[in-house]
Specification:
The chain has 335 residues and is α/β, with parallel strands linked by helices. The protein folds into 2 domains: 101 residues, no CATH class; 212 residues, von Willebrand factor, type A domain (Rossmann fold, 3-Layer(aba) Sandwich), CATH 3.40.50. Helix content is 41%, strand content 21%. The chain contains 10 helices and 13 strands. Helix 1 packs antiparallel against helix 3, helix 4 packs across helix 9 and helix 7 packs parallel to helix 8. The protein starts with a strand and ends in an 8-residue tail after the last helix. 31% of the residues are buried.
Length: 335
């Protein structure tokens, strides 16, 4: 036997308090009648038509109703069975680069806007998958934890801005570690398996290193990485607002170029795929299809224990006790 909501059992501590309150109310009523009648010797004049035993039974029935009502709320269960469950759906972390270089306009309207659009289209193509959103520049941040509410993730995507970067730089390896934490640990042996994946949208620039170690760690954890490169190999200056561009110490404009190597390496090491962002946006459909295949391949058939609910029994006792309290009067028989 077990309880599905054992925390409700703490409410049983209130049953003795209810009994004490009923006993106190009976004593207070007896004292009031004694004062009204002129003392204890004259109390019998007012209690001839009522039965103290019946009142006790009514109080006891009310306490029983409360106690068994609490037991019903705790949902007792016994008699377990097993059923076959087909596990579907994946856990996905979308990682978006929000560094200054993502403001480059070599892909219209700019790299970040293209990344946000492709991520939104991917969300539209997903089914019942849980999705988390991680952003990164010099430091990663979990913008939205795993959720089935894809519209909520879209709201966070729409608020992304390269101007809001607090720590400049591009720490791709740290962002991947943050995404892995957002996905949670892998399934323990003998438990339900669920496929996990990461989609990275970035121009590939990496100032911190550590991609090789990150790729090995993700592969060992069973996380598949898909990359979408945003930008062009020709590159373009990095805008700084107001029509100005970022310049180096010699006053020359700093050019940012798409670096596909880290994204390709991540995809290769983890069994994923790499795509370059295109105007046709066909890469989104291909990633959605790959994720669906990952879902089908990662789904497993497991035997899950199902306990039989028995709350109906204490609930029936509680209702019967309430019925007794309602029907039973405290008047003596024959009066």
């Amino acid at each position: 036997m077990r309880f599905a909501a054992p925390e409700m059992l703490w409410t049983l501590l209130g049953v003795p308090l209810l009994a004490a309150a009923l006993w106190g109310a009976a004593l207070a009523r007896r004292r009031a009648l004694a004062r009204f009648g002129g003392g204890i010797p004259y109390l019998s004049r007012f209690t001839r038509q009522t039965s103290a035993h019946r009142r006790a039974v009514k109080g006891l029935a009310l306490c029983f109703a409360a106690a068994f009502g609490v037991l019903a709320a705790a949902r007792p269960q016994w008699g377990a069975g097993t059923e076959t469950v087909n596990r579907k759906g994946i856990d996905l972390a979308i990682v978006v680069d929000t560094s200054r270089s993502m403001g480059a306009e070599d892909v219209p309207p700019n790299r970040l806007a293209r990344a946000v659009r492709e991520a939104s289209l991917l969300l539209d193509a997903l089914g019942g998958d849980r999705v988390a959103l991680v952003t990164f520049a010099g430091k990663p941040a979990l913008a939205c934890p795993l959720t089935l509410d894809h519209e909520a993730v879209k709201l966070f995507l729409e608020e992304l801005d390269t101007e809001a970067v607090s720590v400049p730089g591009t720490a791709l390896a740290e962002a991947l570690a943050e995404a892995a934490r957002a996905l949670g640990p892998g399934p323990a042996p003998g438990t339900e398996a669920k496929a996990r994946a990461i989609v990275v949208l970035s121009d590939g620039e990496d100032h911190e290193g550590g991609i090789e170690a990150a790729a090995r760690s993700l592969h060992q954890s069973g996380v598949v990485v898909y990359g979408i490169g945003c930008g062009t190999e020709g590159g373009t200056p990095i805008p700084e607002g107001g029509g100005a561009y970022k310049r180096d110490e010699n006053g020359k404009p700093v050019t940012t170029r798409l670096d596909e190597r880290p994204l390709r390496q991540l995809a290769l090491e983890t069994g994923g795929r790499y795509f370059r962002a295109s105007t046709s946006e066909a890469e989104v459909e291909e990633i959605a299809s790959a994720l669906a295949s990952l879902d089908a391949a990662g789904s497993t058939t497991v035997l899950k224990t199902r306990w039989v609910e028995r709350f109906q029994i204490p609930l029936a006792i509680a209702l019967a006790a309430l019925l007794i309290d309602t029907i039973l009067t405290d008047r003596r028989r024959g009066t």
